[in-house]
Amino acid sequence: MDAELLPARINDTAELCEKTCTPKFLGFLTSAEAALARNILKNARVRNDFFGGYEGAERVILGCFPDWAEDFPYPISPLTVSFRKADVLSHRDILGSLMALGIKRETVGDILIEEGRAVAFVSDDVKEYILDQVEKIGRVGVNITDGCTFPLPEGDKLEEFTGTAASDRIDCVAAALCRLSRSKVCELIAAGLITVNSVPVSKPTKSVAAGDVISVRGKGRYIAVSLDGRTKKDRIVIKYKKYIQEVKKC
Model pTM? Predict the structure, then answer.
């Protein structure tokens, strides 16, 4: 999505929701774009949230909602791509085939792949076009159907944890998440090995907010759920989710 136009599009989405009193959507957004949207809309007069089709999605759609729109559905459709287990398809293969149709990158969310099956989350307005147009991805014949079955073809899962930190600074938060010393975390920051919402952290004083995705090279990837509570010793209570790689048994 055009970085220069994105702030205006975010504000327009919220303003249009307020003026028309109808839900409005923007995306799919990267984690960095979603973090920007959260910051821009933190004082918005309409309720806003993010969803990518399943819990823990990396690419998400911004939804702005009037008060009446409780549990209003996001315009997201999962599509199942079926192919022979003997064939191999990558994320790049599937995304490339979809982009070759001329649709915008922001209409395609996460693509999850396993042997013989992939699930792609797409915007409702491009679903039928994809279903009509795609019969092959590269040289591999595929069958694309509307919807998906669970569990999703995902190698990672999310587990929730709780920790404490002296402040919401990234050096403190990352130390708590990874069980490292702050000095070690500062070394990782200096080496460019820690990112927040896919953007490398340059200073240990950067603040972390709820919804931020924190990646620490060699230590894992985390989602900050909340940093609201306080302990008796006035430390911040951090609720977070960690991506856990599942071991597949042969």
Answer: 0.72
